[in-house]
What we know:
Blueprint lengths: L3 E6 L7 H17 L4 E6 L1 H6 L5 H18 L7 E4 L4 H10 L5 H6 L1 H9 L8 H4 L1 H11 L4 E3 L5 H18 L7 E3 L32 H9 L20 H9 L2 H7 L6 H10 L4 H27 L2 H30 L7 H11 L2
Parallel strand pairs: 1-2, 2-3, 4-5
Helix pairs in contact: 3-14, 4-8, 4-15, 8-9, 10-14, 11-14
The site of adenosine-5'-triphosphate has 18 residues, from helix 1.
Amino acid sequence: xxxxxxxxxxxxxxxxxxxxxxxxxxxxxxxxxxxxxxxxxxxxxxxxxxxxxxxxxxxxxxxxxxxxxxxxxxxxxxxxxxxxxxxxxxxxxxxxxxxxxxxxxxxxxxxxxxxxxxxxxxxxxxxxxxxxxxxxxxxxxxxxxxxxxxxxxxxxxxxxxxxxxxxxxxxxxxxxxxxxxxxxxxxxxxxxxxxxxxxxxxxxxxxxxxxxxxxxxxxxxxxxxxxxxxxxxxxxxxxxxxxxxxxxxxxxxxxxxxxxxxxxxxxxxxxxxxxxxxxxxxxxxxxxxxxxxxxxxxxxxxxxxxxxxxxxxxxxxxxxxxxxxxxxxxxxxxxxxxxxxxxxxxxxxxxxxxxxxxxxx
Length: 361
Ligand code: ATP
Ligand code: MG
């Protein structure tokens, strides 16, 4: 069996550090590992429309932003297929057939859907399209026969739902679809990176993000005003690490080499944490260090983005070629699905012969 990756992002804004540590960085490593036969990276515009149906302009404007972010982190169109969900109609068709395999109450129990319904104030009236997006996500994953889906922790319920659909389909119609495995970040701090405001998740919809395309000035401003420990008022006060976003980001991004280079008074993060908890270490010093650590990661990304920004038409050509390649693969799978479901009437010579026989008597 081939090793295939499918993952993606909603074009609801530019990509941020949460996407980077939760999924993007891993994708680039997997891409360059040479261990995967095919890598599909999807800009999920149709999914974004399920909760932004009244704002298609937002989705339209952000496709190029997400594509630029992909290229800037090192996704390479020669190795990874970058494509746009809505341009692959086979995905919608699969969704329609998978809908028969899922119950309303199962969708209602999906914890990610539950929390997103709350976040969007959809309690009173949930658009059907939004409610069903886990099914459409199952189509995206299975259409490419993905074996591996590198995503953040919030996607775990989606993968469970996908695997249930795969098992149900295969048991009803015969072995056709492949069960994917989720690949979560190894580093605990990266499973769900909090926002700069200390909220549980950095998210485009919450406006608490450091974007990969932010200028050094913007990054610094955001870092310097980040949520830390509200009880740590004076430098001498002992500080707390629990819920302290600056330290969570250091857990996610800092390496021992950064200390030698930018903060040689400390050997490593444990020593810095110890001092902070003891008291006598101010937030400003820690934030300045974090800013340098982030800059080291972000400046090559920014530079690569600047290069691609000079050739926007070229970026659109990359996406168009990606859509063609993705469509070819998805339509192969759709054909297999229709064969398994026996809705391939014109290719089914046995069926036609049977009916000829029935009426020739
Ligand atoms: P939206 O608010 O529109 O849902 P989002 O910021 O949640 O946007 P998505 O496009 O939904 O971003 O998520 C894309 C990928 O990035 C998913 O794999 C998701 O798990 C991951 N991801 C998003 N935010 C974070 C985060 N804060 N920490 C870790 N991973 C994240
Ligand atoms: Mg999301």
